[in-house]
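The instructor's notes for this session suggest beginning with a concrete chain rather than abstract definitions. Hand out the sequence below and ask the class to guess, before any prediction is shown, which regions might be ordered.
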Amino acid sequence: MVDYECLVDEAGFRVIAFGRWAGIVGAHNALWTWSRRTGDFPFKRAKDMKDFAALKSYYKKVTLPPLRIVVTGSGRVAKGSMEVMELLGIEKVSPEDFLQNSYNKSVYMNLVDSYMYKRIKDEGYDKKEFHQFPDRYYSTAYSYVASADILINGIFWNPEAPRLFEKPDMHRKDFKVQEVADISCDVDGSVPATLRTTTINEPVFGYNKYTDEATAPFETDTIDIMAVDNLPNELPRDASSEFGNVILSTIITELQNPESRMVNDATICLGGKLNTPYLYLSDYTAGD
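After discussion, reveal the predicted structure:
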């Protein structure tokens, strides 16, 4: 039994990953949520489109109001979200310009780790150290995030790392965020307003920052939270096609190689016995 999500290359990156599609649909849902919240422009759901090609054609007909959008992260999810920004003609600006300027058009900025975190002892940042010892860092994301209308969160979050902001921060007068598309879907994680995940049929809930409770979406004085945890399912043709292509181009060859490290490390059990990397499941499989 092979866990496809555990198939990784020599660099440790997942071979089969749906992050790009999660990012694409998550960014789309962010704009759909804004359209429902404000009524400023019509915007269809991704799930109602035949495929991504149809979605891209639809974008050519869309006119957006001026919006300030922050996309966090640097991986597949963030890149997928930024793909949507580019397709819609939303201009990318630097973090510095995003903070200092006002715009009469839609803009977005990409907030990466080196802008979001600083070392506690000396304000420095080292990528390797941060991923090994995130507790040595504090968050510097607030000033960037707070000035956005929409936050699209696509980071991989370690529970030992600081949040992007804390619940009291949402009470500050300079906190302008009205919507969070939390593609990361870490409940009570990097975004403290993500109280729960949501579904494709009911993708958004409201967050009352004064009572710390979930409410109906699109209400005054609440923050809308989109936290669908199976976003690629809204574009099933494309996500499935990519999955199949990776299987055919990479995995089949590995499966035919009895010495494949990739397959061995992702094999949970073989011949009725747990594989070495998964022996920690012994008590569970024994029913203890």
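Then share the key points. The chain has two domains: 4-9+237-285, 19-232. The radius of gyration is 21 Å.
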